[in-house]
């Protein structure tokens, strides 16, 4: 990357408290290109816009990530299948069935009413309440969390499914009921349904596998019956979960080298922070550089996806210790330890669907708070995002001019999954992304620097997700062209890699080249 201006370089050298050596050569790549640089001269101050509730809930303390439970309690499993299946049944009283049928007769056609009556005929004849599996879990995961599907019911060897789909024209949910002759026919329908929602083949197969496990357990009676009311909707996960009084702890899901973190743990602060707009709790790790001096300002790199990227921080800090980069504050952010996101739906929601709220949180809450606790050189700080996070940093970059607070002068857009902006959600508005959110209608030039990168081998990784839209590399290439056409301060690089394998190498290289000694 092109070295920063002489004025900035001198400031960094003054701020540096560690010995600095010459930066090493860049690692091999297929392509690297740097264009014009942007010089920032005005000092930046941020205004903390946290609410009283948010301020009351923030908690800065020493690192607790290493307090990983030594043993994680596993659910009791079926000895034959190796899986635990849990079912909560719903009960419809016979009187409600009869009154419901009478009301439906006025609204349905004779054919529709006949099908509905047939479904409850045996209950009407016997006078018994109707019972059906409302929620089905395999190993603690609701097999229908992934989409708005209700669990199937099993009658006379056939499978009946109620499917609810949102109709944007009528602004309402429409419900249909279908019957399938056997499991194979039902699973074919499930696969087509999830393909239409742009789910990767691998994830679809996991879903169908869980359905088969649940089906076998249900038919053989090898399942746990949950008390009615056990399953609740989680506003934080946007899914149904089995309610429990036990405290959840998912620190064992974080990916990091324990020994490497142990060696620098005294330089790491842990911050619990809550955002009212997103209604979510986050954990932020702030790692100070060697010989940190609070009287001097340091650039900060904020890494999204802390569950993975915190594991890169020890190696990044080692680069500073070895004098191969100037001192920089390293920070990462992820959800609080009592939250898991096994299928990435929460991450997609906050980095893509709710990217505006997430940007508000980082710009007006998190970064000003960090500035009140650490000496930060905002104009030289960097925001990093990859995949869905790359979609977010692209949005953050081209909406940065709309904010009073300016916490970042640099943005890393890594392998942005722009194809996720074309999924069937009414608020995505991909046409705004295609115009870079009209930034250049409001501004003559881009006032920030951009590091745009991807893996040269990654397009086949998500073939089933593109759905006729640009692949990852096509989206990156078009963004590169747009940035170049506006004379942006751009560094562009393709690594010989698939979707995410290049990230550790890229972060080390970025640190050395963006913040040289």
| Quantity of strands, as a count | 19
- Helix proportion of residues, in percent? 25-40%
Mean pLDDT: 84
Strand-residue fraction?
A: 15-25%
How would you portray this structure in words?
There is one protein chain. With 517 residues, this protein is α/β, with parallel strands linked by helices. It folds into 2 domains: 324 residues, Alpha/Beta hydrolase fold, catalytic domain (Rossmann fold), CATH 3.40.50; 123 residues, no CATH class. Helix content is 34%, strand content 21%. The strands form 4 sheets. A 10-stranded mixed β-sheet has the order 1-19-18-17-16-14-15-13-12-2, sandwiched between helices. The two termini are 14 Å apart.
Summarize the structure.
The chain is built from 16 helices and 19 strands.
Topology:
Elements: H1 6-15, E1 31-34, H2 52-57, E2 59-62, E3 85-92, H3 94-105, H4 110-126, E4 130-138, E5 141-142, E6 153-155, E7 158-167, E8 172-180, H5 183-196, H6 201-220, E9 224-226, E10 231-234, E11 239-242, H7 258-264, E12 268-275, E13 280-287, E14 300-303, H8 306-309, H9 313-321, E15 329-335, H10 345-353, H11 355-373, E16 382-386, H12 388-399, E17 410-414, H13 430-434, H14 439-442, E18 449-455, H15 472-485, E19 489-495, H16 503-514
Parallel strand pairs: 3-9, 14-15, 14-16, 16-17, 17-18, 18-19
Antiparallel strand pairs: 1-19, 2-12, 3-4, 4-5, 6-7, 7-8, 10-11, 12-13, 13-15
Helix pairs in contact: 3-4, 5-6, 10-11, 10-12
Describe the structure using short key phrases.
517 residues, Rossmann fold, ten-stranded mixed β-sheet, elongated, four-stranded mixed β-sheet, alpha/beta, single chain, 16 helices, 2 domains, disordered N terminus, 19 strands
